[in-house]
Design brief:
This protein has 357 residues and is of the alpha/beta class. The chain folds into two domains: 171 residues, Rossmann fold, CATH 3.40.50; 150 residues, 3-Layer(aba) Sandwich (Rossmann fold), CATH 3.40.50.2300. It has 14 helices and twelve strands. The strands form three sheets. It has a six-stranded parallel β-sheet with strand order 2-1-3-4-5-11, sandwiched between helices. A four-stranded parallel β-sheet has the order 7-6-8-9. The protein is elongated and about 60 Å long. The structure holds beta-D-galactopyranose.
């Protein structure tokens, strides 16, 4: 589909225009029959979403599709506008990693109207009937791995403690946030109840520990405050951090508060910068989610749907979006630390060894 044709479609958005299939439009352009898939990613400030976007683009192109790939700089309204444009361009399907899980009702209703299937990518979209499938990881298991890492690293089964721990969670606008936290909390809570783990700040509610936009600088500020308010003359021994950008913010805070022996600090996404921290002993662990597999899963869902087939799913009960249970394919996350990063993320080709120098 060439640029002019897109403008024409954009200008005539409505039931008639959107009823045209992309390939039907394309044939008028002189035989260019590839359909276009709309891919909406949240932000480029996190490396993982750049990988996700690139992987999706490549995987769709390998299947013969074109791709319009948009990032919205973590601004929900911008993502809404991008999706509206994609719908008006009559994309064949939408793959969406939402910024604000409750802000997309408008464009998704338009997509439904235009018969455009919608895949929620990694993050579930809530309170709308207009999500067809969900491609993600086992998000509870991510939290379980983070909690278990802390239990093993502090050897809580054998040590008397008590050990001080502080808890961080992700953005409240992200449906994954409670799943990650609940997974970790289920593992950690018995040790907190027994007094082996102590949250000196007392902050254990999601609203208290959430981090707006998953922003590492915000996490750094909160850690600074926790240290100055609750840790005068005391050490923190572990920090539950849900995502590598947040982990690095926490480490910066600890280092600027003169921690030489750093606590256990978890993470997620196996970002290159955090892998370097792990190798240097500054962050303890991360959770690797192979975004190549996630992209392949989402692409297979779209290809099946556009072929009139039912996509393969492996979970039809966990993810109720407030309107209905969204059939999902959930992949398996892997805990990574200094002992297995080589095997899990380098040998698998996910990260180049040279980038970790
Ligand atoms: C979540 C995602 C995590 C992490 C976080 C911050 O939705 O599942 O892997 O990337 O966003 O970007």
């Amino acid at each position: 589909m060439n640029v002019n044709r897109r403008h024409l479609l954009a200008g005539t958005a409505g039931a008639a225009a959107v009823a045209l299939t992309a390939s039907a439009c394309a044939s008028e352009d002189g035989g260019d029959s590839a359909k276009t898939i709309g891919v909406a990613m949240p932000t480029k400030t996190s490396e993982r979403w750049i990988f996700d976007g690139d992987n999706l683009k490549k995987a769709f192109e390998d299947e013969g599709y074109k791709v319009t790939l948009q990032y919205a700089n973590d601004v929900p309204d911008d993502q809404v506008a991008q999706l509206e444009t994609m719908v008006s361009q009559n994309v064949a399907a939408l793959v969406v990693a939402a910024i604000d899980n409750k802000s997309l009702n408008g464009p998704l209703a338009q997509a439904k109207e235009a018969d455009i299937p919608v895949i929620a990518y990694d993050r579930l979209i809530l309170d709308t009937p207009n999500v067809d499938y969900y491609a993600s990881f086992d998000n509870i298991q991510v939290g379980t791995l983070q909690g278990e890492y802390i239990v093993t690293a502090l050897d809580l089964e054998n040590q008397a403690g008590p050990f001080n721990i502080e808890l961080f969670a992700g953005a409240l606008t992200d449906n994954n946030t409670p799943y990650f936290f609940n997974g970790a909390w289920a593992v950690l809570e018995p040790y907190i109840a027994e007094g082996k783990l102590v949250v000196k700040s007392g902050e254990v509610e999601l609203e208290q520990i959430a981090t707006e936009n998953w922003d590492g600088a915000i996490a750094q500020d909160r850690m600074d405050n926790l240290l100055s308010t609750h840790y005068k003359g005391e050490q923190v021994h572990a920090v539950l951090a849900p995502y590598d950008g947040i982990s690095r913010g926490i480490v910066s805070s600890l280092e600027s508060n003169n921690y030489t022996t750093l606590p256990v600090v978890t993470g997620q996404d196996a970002e290159i910068e955090s892998l370097k921290y792990i190798i240097a002993g500054r962050q303890t662990s991360t959770v690797f989610k192979d975004t190549r597999d996630l992209a392949t899963t989402a692409v297979e869902m779209v290809v099946a749907l556009l072929d009139g087939k039912k996509p393969e799913v492996n979970d039809e009960e966990t993810y109720d979006n407030g309107d209905h249970v969204i059939p999902a394919f959930l992949l398996t996350p892997v805990s990574v630390d200094v002992d297995n990063y080589q095997e899990v993320v380098v040998d698998s080709g996910y990260v180049d060894a040279a980038d970790l120098q």
